[in-house]
Amino acid sequence: GAGVSQTPSNKVTEKGKYVELRCDPISGHTALYWYRQSLGQGPEFLIYFQGTGAADDSGLPNDRFFAVRPEGSVSTLKIQRTERGDSAVYLCASSSGGLAGEETQYFGPGTRLLVL
Amino acid sequence: KQEVTQIPAALSVPEGENLVLNCSFTDSAIYNLQWFRQDPGKGLTSLLLIQSSQREQTSGRLNASLDKSSGRSTLYIAASQPGDSATYLCAVTAGGFKTIFGAGTRLFVKA
Q1: pLDDT in tens, B52-88
Q2: Which of A50, A71, A76, B59 could form a disulfide with A55 if both were Cys (CB 3.0 to 4.6 A apart)?
Q3: Residue A62 per-residue DSSP state
Q4: What angle do CA B83, B86, B91 make, to 5 degrees?
Q5: What's the confidence (pLDDT) of residue A12?
Q6: Is the pLDDT at B50 greater than 80, yes or no?
Q7: What are the DSSP E strand ranges found in A1-116?
Q8: pLDDT category, A101, cuts 50, 70, 90?
Q9: Nearest CB to B99 within list A41, A45, A109
Q10: Cβ of B100 and A45 within 8 Å?
């Protein structure tokens, strides 16, 4: 079916505001990842879901960042009290959730967040 | 702490040239290593995945090798084309499914 989709594609907000970024993984993929990418850098791991649970959230930078995946499909990354330093491209990826060594990740196009 | 380094940071070659991109990582306890391509303003496209038990993978003009003991991988691109111009990213996945990326190599192939 369709690939990974992310909405919105672009988001401009003001410092201090709350934002939600959405990820629709490939149908049937149980594993879902969030990354943040700054200009000229590789993606930085934020959080990994296996099904509905966050199996590894060690990359979330602070408690302003939170992510959910209530039904094991769509995921939402939530950022409270946004700061200018949160400006980046937020990428989502999914994989089949099978054996760890065989996990090809499929990426969405990203959401470009700009905090003014 | 796992660190991934890619050399060179940028590369410009004439069309038709064979080239090698390098990736090194500090912790050899990995599940796999992946090479991705990223076009400007786009998401990442997986090119090759090498499992920890494998030494290389091939896809068309691309060949990736993995030497876990030395913490190195190379991506070989044969007969480069202008359409190969992009940023190439190397990533390793270790325990906990945490994937660590390098900063990438920006490749420009001149027609």
Answers
A1: 999 999 999 999 999 999 999 999 999 999 999 999 9
A2: A50
A3: S
A4: 130
A5: 98
A6: yes
A7: 5-7, 10-13, 19-24, 31-37, 44-50, 53-56, 65-68, 75-79, 88-95, 106-107, 111-115
A8: low
A9: A45
A10: yes
Three state DSSP letters for chain B: CCCEEEECCEEEEECCCCEEEEEEECCCCCCEEEEEEECCCCCEEEEEEEECCCCEEEECCEEEEEECCCCEEEEEECCCCHHHCEEEEEEEECHHHCEEECCCEEEEEEC
On whether the CB atoms of residues B22 and B7 are closer than 8 A, the answer is yes
- Residue A12 neighbours by CB under 8 Å, 6+ apart: A114, A116
Out of A71-85, A94-108, B45-59, which region has the weakest mean confidence (pLDDT)?
A94-108
Chain A residue numbers with beta carbons less than 8 Å from the beta carbon of B101 are 35, 42-45
Q: Is A105:A93 a contact under the CB 8 Å cutoff?
A: yes
Instruction: Give the three-state DSSP class for A3.
Output: coil
DSSP class of residue A108 equals -
User: At A50, which amino acid appears?
Assistant: Q
- Give the closest of A40, A93, A100 to B31, CB-based: A100
Could you give the 3-state DSSP secondary structure of residue A102? helix
Percent of chain B topping pLDDT 70: 98
User: What is the pLDDT, as a whole number, of residue A102?
Assistant: 67
3 state SS of A71: coil
- Report yes or no: A45 at the B interface, CB cutoff 8 Å: yes
